[in-house]
Design goal:
heterodimer, A: 162 residues, alpha+beta, 8-stranded antiparallel sheet, 5 helices, 25% helix, B: alpha+beta, 7-stranded antiparallel sheet, elongated, disordered N terminus
Chain lengths: 162, 458
């Protein structure tokens, strides 16, 4: 199972939005607010083909960071965290693969998704999606959310980071 | 915020600093020497006059904001809605360099990009991003060595492609034509069934043909504010079907309509019916198709009124009776006006895309106030024709039931005035407008049904 510290796991379980930073074509960071999902080991984010430039960036450079920083999006759970990791894009079948991989996790966090999914006919391209699977390599944690203080640093066990 | 492409990047202006100032904190990101992006939340002050964002330097070497590379500063906002996800989505990100790395940092952005759903609604943002989806799937297909296209299940795809719910525009005049014939003592249920099915095939064929020509002409691409009532099915644009598949479907629909139409002509022996059928298909196809392209010449509303008013209604009447009648002709007028008004209101959000594609619809040509007032005038005229028809004895008095739909016309009139430039605000009134046509038609049909019963009892 995963190695992320418990406060970070709790944040991942409740966060409605986290900031995914990817490395752009020219080496610059590009940040996308996305809903993070967590299965106890890896973080999953997902993207419609409509907004898929981030997927192309990740395929070119898989290094990413996920920032959990907004107290509103964290629904009162204290703390801030930045998770650096290695991402891979799962896109064999953008029509239905994501449903098999992450729909249960998404539904648990955002039950309203089922109502939107019933309207797939109205937004067909929005529901053509790829999954971004992030294996955490390193984590910075501010338990009280104050980045004026030194963060605690956690690293993945060596074999998992390899 | 500029709206070209899918909300493109631009050089920062004073508005961007004001926008950033609305966020309570920012997340600062950069790519560290180990190639991992690093990000950290911090406090800030946007200084529009100096053209800088003053950032608090977070504590710790791991998150020390560097001054030797591009950094990314992001403000992000959502408003959680219990049980409903969240709304008020917006974010703004800036790229630039940090001017000092001790204490407070002066960050000078050179590039900005963002999205605020209150300025660019999600549906519009999605529409503007359709080319990115096509690009991505084309690249993915090339990478995987197999064709990867967006999909819908077959039923949903047929529903969307043919715009099936619009069949009410056909059912109202066809059923009304048959009801008038029944009051005149002529009703063959098998011919009636064939008429409904044939007319439905013709209508769906016309819908698909219009989509083909609207996509080929670029009208649908130019429209980034489609609603469920306007902007076409977009199945070609979204690559849900190919042009060849759409043409094949259209040939099937028109083939079925033609076969049923010819069977009805054979069964009734009516040359009038043949002429009406040919006129109906011609008006429908040449609505968008060259060489006539009626909608491009400012005749779209008239063509729809003609096709889904007199042609449908008189056609259904002639199938049953073999002749034309003044009563059927007069009854077709309010139906024609109200269906033209459905198109007319649906054209309001399409007007920019239509204008770009050269379509001379009334909302393209007329100022908003005139479009709004003309709606009310035309709707009142439709109900006036019913009253006049009853007054001169051409229509049964019971058809005045249709006037019960009149308040809907007032609602739509007010809705147009209040939402003229808001496609998604207008959408609710487009639905009311469709219901106006449907309810007025049902009122007329009910009136004829009562008249038939009364005639049989007396």
């Amino acid at each position: 199972m995963g190695w992320l510290p418990a406060p970070v796991e709790r944040m991942l379980e409740v966060a409605l939005v986290g900031e995914l930073t990817v490395v752009g074509r020219d080496g610059r960071p590009i940040t996308h607010p996305l809903i993070p999902l967590y299965d106890g080991e890896r973080i999953y984010m997902h993207s419609s083909t409509l907004f898929s430039k981030k997927l192309e960036h990740i395929k070119r450079d898989p290094h990413v960071a996920v920032s959990l920083s907004d107290p509103v999006a964290l629904k009162g759970v204290p703390g801030r965290a930045t998770i650096q990791g290695t991402a891979r894009v799962m896109e064999d079948d953008p029509h239905s693969q994501w449903e098999r991989l992450i729909l249960d996790l998404w539904r648990r966090k955002e039950p309203v998704i089922d109502a939107f999914l019933k309207q797939r006919i109205a937004l067909p391209l929005f529901f053509e999606r790829a999954v971004i699977e992030i294996t955490p390599d390193r984590c910075l944690l501010w338990e009280d959310g104050d980045t004026n203080r030194q963060p605690q640093r956690f690293d993945a066990p060596r074999e998992e980071a390899a | 915020m500029p709206r070209g492409g899918s909300v493109p990047a631009h050089a920062p202006g004073p508005d961007d600093f004001s926008r950033l100032a609305r966020y309570p904190f920012v997340v600062v990101s950069w790519v560290a020497d180990d190639r991992y992006p690093t990000s950290v939340a911090t406090d800030f002050r946007a200084d529009a006059e100096a053209g800088v964002v003053r950032l608090r330097q977070p504590t710790g070497d791991a998150v020390r904001i560097p001054d030797d590379r591009t950094i990314n500063v992001v403000g992000s906002h959502i408003r959680p809605q219990p049980g409903q996800g969240y709304d008020e989505r917006r974010y703004l990100q800036m790229w630039g360099t940090a001017l000092a790395a001790d204490g407070e940092i002066a960050f000078r952005p050179t590039r900005v990009w963002g999205w605020d759903e209150q300025e660019v609604p999600f549906f519009e943002y999605s529409e503007r991003s359709v080319p990115q989806s096509r690009h991505y799937l084309a690249r993915l297909s090339a990478e995987k060595g197999r064709l990867i296209r967006p999909r819908l299940d077959l039923g949903a795809l047929f529903f969307r492609t043919t715009r099936l719910p619009f069949l009410s525009a056909t059912f109202v005049p066809v059923l009304l034509g048959m009801a008038i014939a029944a009051l005149d003592g002529a009703f063959n249920p098998w011919l009636a069934l064939l008429t409904v099915i044939g007319a439905a095939f013709a209508h769906l064929g016309i819908n698909v043909a219009n989509d083909i020509f609207d996509t080929l002409s670029g009208a649908d691409q130019a429209n980034v504010n489609p609603t469920k009532f306007s902007g076409g099915s977009r199945v070609l644009l979204y690559d849900l079907v190919t042009l060849r598949e759409l043409i094949a479907l259209d040939a099937l629909l028109f083939g079925a309509a033609a076969a049923i139409g010819l069977a009805l002509v054979w069964a009734t022996g009516s040359a009038t019916l043949l002429a009406i059928g040919i006129a109906g298909i011609a008006v429908g196809v040449f609505y968008t198709a060259p060489p006539l392209k009626l909608v491009y010449r400012g005749l779209g509303e008239f063509a729809v009124a003609l096709g889904f008013g007199p042609i449908m209604l008189l056609g259904a009447y002639v199938v049953q009776t073999g002749t034309l009648s003044w009563e059927a002709a007069v009854a077709s007028v309010p139906v024609a006006i109200l269906i033209a008004l459905v198109l007319y209101v649906n054209e309001i959000p399409d007007r920019v895309g239509d204008a770009a594609a050269g379509k001379r619809t009334l909302p393209v040509r007329l100022p908003p106030a005139l479009v709004t007032n003309a709606y009310l005038g035309a709707a009142l005229a439709a109900f006036g024709v019913i009253v006049a028809g009853v007054a001169v004895g051409l229509l049964p008095p019971f058809t005045l039931l249709a006037l019960l739909a009149l308040p809907l016309a007032i609602r739509v009139y007010r809705g147009i005035g209040a939402n003229y430039s808001s496609p998604y605000g207008l959408m609710a009134y487009m639905g009311v407008n469709v219901n106006l046509h449907l309810l007025a038609g049902l009122g007329l049909l009910t009136g004829y049904a009562i008249a038939i019963v009364v005639a049989q009892l007396t």
